[in-house]
Design brief:
The protein is of the alpha+beta class. The chain has helices spanning 16-33, 80-89, 134-152, 190-193, 200-217, and strands spanning 2-9, 37-43, 65-71, 92-104, 120-126, 157-166, 176-182, 224-232.
Length: 233
């Protein structure tokens, strides 16, 4: 089995709510009929829009939705049905095979099929800084930063997806895609985000530790970070 993550762009000027509704209504069933399983869609919805100030961008127009799923084989000759489904649901898309590592499984608010997961999901799309080799970057991210993220944030789900290969020509140069789920209040209150409600000293310590760790393996301005709603099917 291989895990695939695809990013979807709507037509320029398309109504976001209508685009979201079409994806939720039709994409899971169509992908399942094409051989996909364990489907998850991440959308910018009315709740996650409250975290617009948390967005980071590389500069290009960011995608409008992400879909994650598993296939027996993501080889081009084996996934024609999936490609056809994706071609028909958006203006353009890019995809990657990824290696999933679940750091924190969602035991607090387990996903329910067809429903929005509680809270919100932050998707971070990482790139390789010019000053690091891939091996150095991977060590700093997975072996050093992971525990910092666990200890300084109120994330109740934390999944790392290491990019194995791109499936589409011209795909953004991401090296990893990270999904972290937080309580809804963390959209507006950084003290909730950094697991330090009522404790300014802990907040500052957690913030400083997180920023110091991120700066070791992230080149600011070269990544995308988007708050989303998570829907599982």
């Amino acid at each position: 089995m291989e895990k695939v993550i695809c990013l979807l762009w709507s037509e320029d000027g398309a109504d976001r709510a209508a685009f979201n509704d079409r994806l939720i209504a039709h994409l899971p069933g169509a992908l399942r009929a094409a051989g996909a399983s364990d489907i998850r869609i991440n959308l910018e919805d009315a709740i996650s829009a409250g975290g617009a100030h948390l967005r980071q961008t590389r500069g290009a127009r960011q995608h409008d939705a992400a879909v994650q799923f598993w296939l027996h084989s993501a080889n081009q000759a084996r996934r024609g049905g999936v490609d056809h489904v994706l071609d028909g649901c958006c203006a353009r898309w890019h995809g990657w095979v990824v290696a999933e590592s679940t750091i924190i499984a969602n035991a607090a608010h387990p996903a329910q099929p067809g429903q929005r997961t509680a809270g919100w999901a932050q998707l971070a799309f990482l790139t390789l800084p010019a000053w690091l080799t891939h091996a150095e970057w991977l060590e700093l991210w997975q072996d050093c930063h992971t525990q910092v993220a666990v200890e300084t944030q109120a994330n109740f789900e934390y999944v790392q997806n290491l990019v194995v290969r791109a499936l589409t020509d011209g795909a953004p140069p991401y090296t990893a895609i990270v999904e972290e789920c937080f309580p809804e209040a963390a959209l507006r209150d950084p003290f909730v985000f950094f697991d330090a409600v009522g404790d300014p000293a802990k907040f500052q310590a957690n913030l400083d530790r997180m920023m110091e760790s991120c700066d070791r393996f992230i080149d600011r301005g070269t990544i995308d970070v988007i708050p989303t709603g998570q829907y599982s099917f």
